[in-house]
């Protein structure tokens, strides 16, 4: 009887100590296929949609993601959507990587058909859709916060003049 009580107490203490860790665990990253991504973009027509391809092991991506985080934090969520697409083969480190960098925008594991659909050959790679739903950028390179802010402003001005 005493050993069962000790096991119960040890288990209770372990769970109590792990509760904060479990509560802060990052959500699992889901894989997104091309049609689901295209549907998501279509459902956000009227907004600028930024699709960012990255990997946890990519040094330029590690430079760019904090820029995207700052940009997204300041962005008008009624006008801009940011979607992260990880191309990591091993998705295990992605959640903690994103949590460490404070990423608040949605992130998915990119299915290989999406990589091919956009011709992604290097990362980071950004695809940007105008509020009209038209793709206006599809290119590799690091996007800086200030550049994104200026670009979004110019796109909104151009869209409103049409």
Task: Draw up the topology in text.
Layout: H1 2-23, E1 31-32, H2 34-43, E2 48-54, H3 59-74, E3 80-86, H4 94-101, E4 107-110, H5 112-118, E5 125-129, E6 135-140, H6 145-160
Parallel strand pairs: 1-4, 2-3, 3-4
Antiparallel strand pairs: 2-5, 5-6
What report would you give on this structure?
This protein is of the alpha/beta class and 162 residues long. It has six helices and six strands, in the order H-E-H-E-H-E-H-E-H-E-E-H. The protein has helices at 2-23, 34-43, 59-74, 94-101, 112-118, 145-160; strands at 31-32, 48-54, 80-86, 107-110, 125-129, 135-140. Strands 1-4-3-2-5-6 form a six-stranded mixed sheet. Helix 3 crosses helix 6. The protein is globular, with a radius of gyration of 20 Å. Mean pLDDT is 87; it is low at 8-25.
The separation of the N and C termini measures 79 Å
Order of helices and strands: HEHEHEHEHEEH
What structural class is derived from the secondary structure elements? alpha/beta
The strand line-up of the biggest sheet is 1-4-3-2-5-6
Overall average residue pLDDT: 87
**Number of DSSP-assigned strands:** 6
Beta-strand level of the residues, as a percent range?
Answer: 15-25%
Q: Main beta sheet: strand number and arrangement?
A: 6 strands, mixed
Count of helical segments?
6
- The proportion of residues forming helix, as a percent range, comes to 40-55%
Low-confidence stretches: 8-25
